[in-house]
Design goal:
seven-stranded parallel β-sheet; Rossmann fold; about 240 residues; 10 strands; binds fructose -6-phosphate; three-stranded antiparallel β-sheet; about 30% helix
Length: about 240
C-alpha cells in the first residue's frame, strides 16, 4: 500500500482528484467506483472545477457507488443517490444514465445485489475505486464482524456507525439501521483503489492498516492484500 500524507483536507482532496483525473484522461470510458460521506466532498469539488475548466470530461464515464441506506428513496435528501447528484453528478458532464447507486428500495435486496455485481462485471469491472474509512474500520458498509460478505448485500449498521452518521439527520432515531452495500469481493476486484482519510478520528484505523495483519474486525485491513491501493490522508489522520 502506498501512503500519501497531505498537509490538510484541501491537499488530500486535490491529490485524490488528480488520481481520478489521470484515470479518466488515460481511459475516457473508464468505470469509477464512488463513495459518499464528508471525506470525498472536497475531492468532488476539485473534479467539478477541473471539468468546468475543460481539463477533463466525464461524458463517457460510468460510475457505481458503494452503498445506499435501506430502505430509503433516491429523492430523500439523506440518500446517497441524492448526495451524489448534489455533490457531483449535477455539476459535471457525466451522463446520469451511466451513474449507478444500489437501490435503497429494492423489494428483493439479494437479487438487486447480484444484478449490481453482474452489471459491474459486464461493464468491464471497476478501474478505480474510491473509499472512505469508518472510524470503526468499515469500508463501504462492511462493518466489523466475524464474517464478511463477498458481493453486494443488505446489512445492518453498527450503533457506532448510526451514531457517526446521525450528524446528517435530524436525530439518531432517523438514521436507517440498514444499508445495501458492495461486499469485500466487489471492492477487491477493482483494478486500483484510493482510500481518503481526514481527521484524528481515522487515526486508529490508519495505524491498523500499516502492520502485517488482517482482520475482519477492521475491514480496512483487508486492503493490504490488494496489489494497488493508495491511502491519501491528511496529517491529522496520519499522526493522530
Ligand atoms: C460511504 C461509505 C462509508 C464512508 C465512511 C466514512 O459511501 O461507504 O464507508 O466512506 O463511513 O464516512 P465520512 O467520510 O463521512 O467520514
Amino acid at each position: 500500500m502506498k501512503i500519501i500524507v497531505c498537509e490538510n483536507y484541501e491537499e488530500m482532496s486535490k491529490a485524490g482528484a488528480e488520481i481520478i483525473a489521470e484515470t479518466v484522461k488515460a481511459n475516457p470510458s473508464c468505470v469509477l467506483g464512488l463513495a459518499t460521506g464528508s471525506t470525498p466532498v472536497g475531492m468532488y469539488k476539485c473534479l467539478t472545477e477541473m471539468n468546468k475548466a475543460g481539463e477533463i470530461t466525464f461524458k463517457d464515464v460510468t460510475s457505481y457507488n458503494l452503498d445506499e441506506y435501506y430502505p430509503l428513496a433516491p429523492d430523500h435528501d439523506q440518500s446517497y443517490r441524492y448526495f451524489m447528484n448534489h455533490n457531483l453528478f449535477d455539476n459535471i458532464d457525466i451522463d446520469k444514465a451511466n451513474t449507478n447507486v444500489p437501490d435503497g428500495l429494492a423489494e428483493d435486496p439479494a437479487a438487486m445485489g447480484k444484478a449490481y455485481d453482474e452489471a459491474i462485471k459486464a461493464a468491464g469491472g471497476i478501474d478505480l475505486q474510491v473509499l472512505g474509512l469508518g472510524p470503526n474500520g468499515h469500508i463501504a458498509f462492511n462493518e466489523p464482524e466475524d464474517e464478511l460478505y463477498v458481493g453486494t448485500h443488505l446489512t445492518g449498521l453498527t450503533d457506532s456507525t448510526i451514531e457517526a452518521n446521525s450528524r446528517f439527520f435530524a436525530s439518531k432515531a432517523d438514521v436507517p439501521t440498514q444499508a445495501v452495500t458492495m461486499g469485500i469481493g466487489s471492492i477487491m476486484q477493482a483494478k486500483k483503489i484510493i482510500v481518503l482519510a481526514s481527521g484524528k478520528g481515522k487515526h486508529d484505523v490508519i495505524v491498523k492498516m500499516q502492520d502485517d495483519r488482517i482482520t475482519t474486525q477492521c475491514p480496512a485491513t483487508l486492503l493490504k492484500v490488494h496489489p494497488d491501493v493508495v491511502l491519501i490522508c491528511d496529517k491529522d489522520a496520519y499522526n493522530g
